[in-house]
Design brief:
Blueprint (H helix, E strand, L loop, with lengths): L4 H18 L8 H17 L4 E6 L15 E2 L6 E10 L1 H5 L6 E8 L10 E7 L14 H12 L7 E5 L5 H10 L2 E5 L3 H6 L10 E7 H13 L3 E7 L3 H9 L9 E2 H4 L4 E7 L10 E3 L2 E10 L4 E10 L1
Parallel strand pairs: 1-3, 6-7, 6-8
Antiparallel strand pairs: 1-2, 3-4, 4-11, 5-8, 5-9, 9-10, 11-13, 12-13, 13-14
Helix pairs in contact: 1-2
The chain binds 7-O-phosphono-alpha-L-galacto-hept-2-ulopyranose.
Length: 314
């Protein structure tokens, strides 16, 4: 089964509405409030869809409701069985401070086709489709990955740009990258968008790497799949709680390196609507009583990788 166009439009509307719901709360310095606005709106809209939906990537467990929690059932129950990955507000700091880069993100696939990821960190690597499949690997050293990319693109190292979250845990990698004299694009937050910068030369990012949220990794992977880019991820289970959760989800090899085709299978739809303007899309715009939103949409089976503009009247 493949998702049809009208279904695609409905999904675009869901992230658009969630983004619009954030608009009154932008720059109010209240992360909880703006996150709740996005989540409530996304849940309301998903529940109106004729699907038998289940959240496989969400925000925490049942006891952490009202967030869209892992295992939550969504939809009218009348349609196909769908796996849903959500990040209603990716970049809560951005939205609370009215800074660039906040997105509302959703990905769906048929049941069983999206990895059921626990809420833990993931070590990630993403490269564009112009990099040969075997040129990069999570298990290669940073230096080897960068040099292989430079070789395959016939570029000097100082023309390579690496995108990574700016975190103390990445100090060693960042020091190495500085030594290699590559260019850095350091993110304060928002590593879904960071990973997606490898999808098009216009963003001038050759590789995204480093440790960020696992759910964000799965969401990014579903878009990267439609762009035929490469992605690898390895979850990091540190605490006993993390390990228990992974066991419950059926993850046997805690150290497994996942390739993209093990994270996302079959047809999928990914939507990321801008809440505030960023590298990928513009944020919500309100003018003459109308909201304008911009959504990055990918649909694996129709090879749609577009930025679509939406207009909603208040
Ligand atoms: C990333 C990023 C998120 O968290 O996954 C990051 O995409 C990872 O966590 O926007 P730390 O902040 O603990 O490093 C965010 O920055 C915030 O959820």
């Amino acid at each position: 089964m493949k998702f049809e166009k009208d279904f695609l439009d409905k999904i675009i509307n869901i992230t658009s509405n969630a983004a619009i719901a954030c608009y009154p709360h932008l720059g109010k310095k209240d992360k909880v409030l703006v996150d709740k606005a996005a989540t409530d709106e996304m849940r309301k809209n998903l529940n109106q869809l004729d699907i038998n939906g289940k959240v496989v990537i969400g925000e925490g467990e049942l006891d952490q409701a009202p967030m869209l929690y892992i295992g939550e059932k969504l939809g009218t129950g009348k349609g196909p069985s769908i796996d849903i990955a959500v990040d209603p507000l990716e970049g809560t700091n951005f939205a609370a401070n009215n800074l660039p880069g906040a997105l509302s993100v959703l990905s769906i696939s048929l049941k069983g086709n999206l990895f059921n990821a626990p809420e833990t960190y993931m070590n990630k690597l993403a490269v564009g489709k112009d990099v040969p499949f075997d040129a990069t690997d999570l298990d290669f050293s940073v230096e080897k990955n960068i040099k292989n990319i430079a070789d395959s693109k016939n570029k000097d190292l100082d023309k390579i740009t690496v995108c990574i979250l700016d975190r103390p845990r990445h100090k060693e990698i960042i020091d190495k990258l500085k030594e290699l004299k590559v260019n850095l694009k350091l993110l304060t937050d928002g590593d879904i968008a960071g990973a997606l910068l490898v999808t098009d030369e216009k963003y001038n990012v050759d590789i995204f790497l480093g440790i960020g949220g696992g759910p964000e990794g799965v969401l990014a992977a579903s878009a990267l799949d439609a762009f035929n880019c490469n992605f690898q991820g390895r979850f990091l289970f540190k605490t006993d709680e993390d390990i228990n959760r992974a066991n419950k989800m059926g993850i046997k090899d805690l150290n497994k390196k996942y390739n993209l085709n093990e994270i996302v299978k079959g047809d999928s739809i990914f939507c990321a609507t801008g809440i505030t303007s960023g590298d990928l899309v513009n944020g919500v715009n309100f003018r003459n009583g109308k909201f304008n939103t911009e959504t990055l949409v990918t649909h694996k089976n129709s090879s749609i990788n577009i930025i679509k503009k939406e207009v909603t009247i208040t």
